[in-house]
Design goal:
482 residues; six-stranded parallel β-sheet; single chain; eight-stranded mixed β-sheet
Length: 482
């Protein structure tokens, strides 16, 4: 088990991949399209405008007409057994399968990854757990479409390189499956809208599986915020600051250089969800408040080139790459209620791991890494207090029920999967939905656009189409009685 403050380097998924180079060609092909600089319109639906208060494109500011009914508050169909198909069995998917198998009433019925060895290894885990041998799909990059067509799957879990997330989520919903996707759920604004529309039309949930929303500290802060311990909320901060240089240049860790190649494509925040999701929960984003616009700034892109110079031999394929991704991006997000959220992303320079995870209000503030708190009237004399003293009163019931959960990242992965499967088994509304997925991912294209426009604010769409104004439950859930 990995402590949540020193996470394992599997924050993002791998696969479908192929040891014979199949997916490497796919990754390199898509990278070639971006190498010369993709047009901004591909990621934002338009061109940058810096002459309005929100500096937004019309496509970003205006919601398209709804094609179906809202998915806000829509429960899952109740089922005693949840049948799962897993797409992508690399670092992330290959470890998360253990958690699905650890939950009673969950069956893993199908697996997909073009790397046959990875699929075989995962299939053995299924049979070792006493379940029937799963169907396997290993015939190239698009065999996931056949998995999604199966009639005996309720939920598709996607743990693949980012380029594939949108297409796989789309295929799952079009084939009648609920789908959960690792971060980010998509990479372009028009794709986010299409996922929203598909979820509404197909009546299938599409969820960003943001494990950090289920971290022990994050859930404690969430309950304290909702109890008013921080007073009226004013500001928060979240980040993904994680030195990934060694892993991104490791030819064996990410099969194909897919993650590093994104640093040749976009300048903005490539991975906002780990920081944005928890702070959005604290502030009830899409549940009484909403984020309205984002302004982003980026440093020069120097870190990866310096690492390559110091560590990679002449002739390595990485020497053909030109990095444009800001070594550190800093974004400020405003909400309809005037609150401010700061987001950071840095995987290209040396520094200790941090998601920042901060929340402040009129009665005090919490800051993580290390965890510390100062709220009135509990603390005085400008001296930090002990956050652990709030555990008994404010730890979420999931953490009290599962005090020593299995799996990585301090147990948050298991808590997330357990709760998701529970909501499906009991026919409950999921803790988050497609609107949250789109909101938490929107900084990917919009921060890139803002940096290109020298920090001009970009409008964040209202993916709920006005329903954000109504308070509703989220991750701060009540323990089911059933």
């Amino acid at each position: 088990m990995h402590d949540e403050n020193t996470p394992a380097p599997d924050e993002s998924a791998e696969g479908p991949t192929s040891s014979d180079g199949h997916s490497r060609r796919t990754v390199l092909r898509t990278a070639g399209l971006a190498g010369a600089g993709l047009g901004l319109g591909a990621f934002t639906g338009g061109t940058a405008q810096a002459d309005t208060p929100q500096g937004a494109t019309a496509a970003a500011a205006e919601a398209p007409a709804r094609q179906g009914e809202t998915m806000v508050g829509v429960p899952f169909e109740r089922r005693s057994t949840v049948r799962v198909g897993i797409v992508g069995l690399g670092n992330r998917g290959g470890s998360m399968i253990d958690l699905f198998l650890a939950i009673p009433g969950v069956k893993v019925v199908a697996l997909c990854d073009p790397v046959k060895d990875k699929t075989a290894k995962a299939a053995k885990k299924v049979t070792d757990a006493g379940q029937p041998a799963p169907a396997t799909y290993t015939k190239g990059d698009h065999d996931y479409e056949n998995l999604c067509k199966r009639g005996d799957i309720d939920f598709v879990y996607v743990a693949t390189p980012w380029d594939w997330h949108f297409a796989m989520a789309k295929s799952a919903m079009l084939n009648g499956k609920h789908v959960g996707v690792e971060c980010p759920v998509a990479l372009q604004l028009d794709q986010l809208w299409e996922l929203v529309d598909l979820s509404e039309r197909t009546r299938r949930h599409c969820m960003q599986l943001e494990n950090c929303c289920y971290g022990k500290n994050e859930m404690r802060v969430l309950r304290m915020a909702h109890a008013g311990k921080f007073g009226d909320l004013l500001h928060g901060a979240g980040a993904y600051n994680h030195d990934l240089r060694g892993l991104m240049f490791d030819p064996d860790y990410y099969e194909g250089p897919w993650r590093r190649l994104w640093h040749t494509r976009l300048r903005g925040d490539l991975y906002p969800n780990h920081g944005f999701g928890p702070v959005s929960n604290y502030m009830d984003i899409n549940r009484g408040d909403r984020v309205t616009h984002i302004s982003s700034f980026g440093t020069p892109a120097l870190g990866l080139a310096e690492y390559r110079k110091a560590n990679m031999p002449a002739g390595d394929p990485s020497w053909k790459e030109t990095y444009i991704e800001s070594d550190r991006t800093i974004s400020l997000v405003q909400t309809a209620k005037g609150r401010v959220i700061r987001l950071e992303h840095d995987v290209s320079t040396p520094h200790p791991y941090s998601r920042i995870n901060s929340l402040g209000g009129t009665k005090g503030v919490f800051e993580d890494y290390p965890s510390r708190i100062y709220i009135e009237p509990d603390h005085t004399n400008d001296e930090w207090g002990d956050f652990a003293k709030y555990a008994e009163e404010f730890d979420h019931w999931l953490w009290k029920e599962h005090s020593n959960p299995p799996g990585g990242h301090g147990g948050m992965d298991y808590i997330m999967i357990f709760r998701l499967m529970q909501t499906m088994q009991l026919g409950l509304v999921p803790d988050f939905d497609v609107y949250d997925a789109a909101t938490w991912t929107s900084p990917v294209p919009l921060s890139h656009l803002s940096i290109k426009a020298k920090g001009a604010p970009q409008a964040i769409p209202d993916f709920t189409r006005g329903l954000w104004k109504k308070a509703r439950p989220g991750v701060d859930s009540e323990k089911p009685q059933a």
